[in-house]
Amino acid sequence: MDELVATMAIVCTLAFLMGYSINQGGTCAVAAVHEVLHRRRCGRLVGLMAASAAAGLVAAPLAWSGFADANLAATVGIGVTVISGAVVFAIGAIINDACLLGSLGRLGNGEIRFAALPVGLAGGFLAVAAVGFEQHPVGVSILAAPGVVAGLALLGFALILVLALWFLSGRRQSKPSSGQWSPGTAMIVLGLSGGAIYAMAPGWTYADFVQRSLPLPMAVADETAALTVTATVAGAIAAACRRRTWRLRRGTLADIGKTLLGGGLMGFGVGTIPGGNDGLVLAAVPSLSPGGVAAHVTMMLSIMAVLAARLHWQRCRSGKSHLKAQRGLSQPGPAGD
């Protein structure tokens, strides 16, 4: 009993740190792609790579040690269902204007509309159950036991982390404001805390909590998720208060509608791929799951393609409007007497 309480205390602390770091780093797949397209910068994208590498460096040794029955994410094969689910998730994240990680961070900032996301997720999970799409792990991770391959993978993670942190440190333009972590610090804490919590308590996220609260065949009662979700949201709010960015924003009915629709599509995606983008970044990719890696790449490319197409369309419309305005100015006025 004492061991269980101690493990729960550790997991909740990790969840708090993860929520805190998400808000500090502005972590979001949609925001990362938006930064690439609109600002020609890839700091957030590199930050996600750093978080995955840090997660791998902590999750594998935890699994090998057997501490708290830690395990790496199971391997999922590459298939049409996984790829399709990643595309659907990406579209949902774009409609919602934030992925699961980004939604949590913005909820911490006081954007109340993201509190409606679990309702949308529930709709997506029910849709997956109705059509019978389910993900089926095909085996254990190749990093499940120490060995040459696992050792080389850890060296690779370490190299990626060092290079990513070097890049992020070189991109800093000014000294962070009071209470603001550097991008590198935020991503390291996110990776270490996220990697550890996914290894120790895989079903800890609010997406898992929603899924397991529904009357579905695969739903399993898990009291851990309620505590960890609360701790994660508390961490995000604490970071926003520390940075002085917390401000209650209710959002419009249209915003709430986008969150519900986007949440439904993301819920469908979560049900068909190895978790949402949080599970991909912090569990599936660090465990070198082929399906997880493929889903993450597909998701990011899909977000990139849709946002790039939208940006091109907006620029075309802006260009046409500017051309019409110029033509209007060049038209000669009425001739005088």
UniProtKB/TrEMBL annotation:
Keywords: Membrane, Transmembrane, Transmembrane helix. Pfam families: Sulf_transp. Signal peptide: none annotated. InterPro entries: Sulf_transp_TsuA/YedE. It comes from the Bacteria. The chain crosses the membrane at residues 6-33, 45-64, 76-102, 114-133, 145-169, 181-204, 224-241, 253-273, 293-313. This is YeeE/YedE family protein. It comes from Aurantimonas aggregata. The lineage of its organism: Bacteria, Pseudomonadati, Pseudomonadota, Alphaproteobacteria, Hyphomicrobiales.
